[in-house]
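Dear Dr. H.,

I hope your travels went smoothly. While you were away I took the liberty of generating a structure for the chain from your last submission, since the lab meeting agenda had it listed for discussion. I wanted you to have the full record in hand beforehand rather than looking at slides cold. The sequence, exactly as received, is reproduced here:
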Amino acid sequence: MTNHFEQLDPRTRILTILGAIIIVASTPNGTLGPFAGYGPLALLLVSTGRAPGIYLVTRSLAVAPFVLLAAGLLVFQAGIIPATSVALKGFTAAFLLAFLTFTTPLSDLLWGLRHLKAPESLNLILGMMYRYTSLLSEEYSRLERARDSRTTRPLGRHRFAIYGRQFGTLILRSWDRAERVHAAMLSRGFTGTWPVTRECHFGARDAGFLLLVSALFLGARWLP
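The corresponding predicted structure, in token form, is as follows:
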């Protein structure tokens, strides 16, 4: 497999990653043998794209609190081995999803989901969440800069009251800006779908890549 993951049809990329995750998730709890194959295969799959390793590791570690909490609770019910397998499943899935989101632009991802017959409401929600998450981040950065420029001494015991007012201001500003952004999108002909920057076709290369990755993960699935 060569570095061409980004050149594949978005549907192929989505199905490849989801298929690998489903196979990993289907591994019975308490079975650790297959992970000796899943790990190298995940790294081999990542080598077909241009996602930086530090990005993938950082994104995978972002889910660590939730994965470790689930595994920790399972320790008391089933033991350390099943808990370890659950943790490995979670980190493998997060690693593969991080690779997908880095190598697939949002417009391509939404296009692929739409053509895979995902609910249209899901596409719209994902697109809006992505757009307005960056909007919230920008507004919060502006509030932080404004607060710091007006603060001459430590916040002290008034810290939480200040944060509360700052959060309320953030909601109000973001609401107003979101309305302006939505009006601008409608004025430019937005109909609820995001444009794709290139023509996408599912061909023999896509089918071969999908079948090869699925076969490799299925082979690892049955390791003792």
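Two observations you may find useful: The CA atoms of residues 79 and 213 lie 32 Å apart. The chain has a mean pLDDT of 84.

With kind regards,
E. W.
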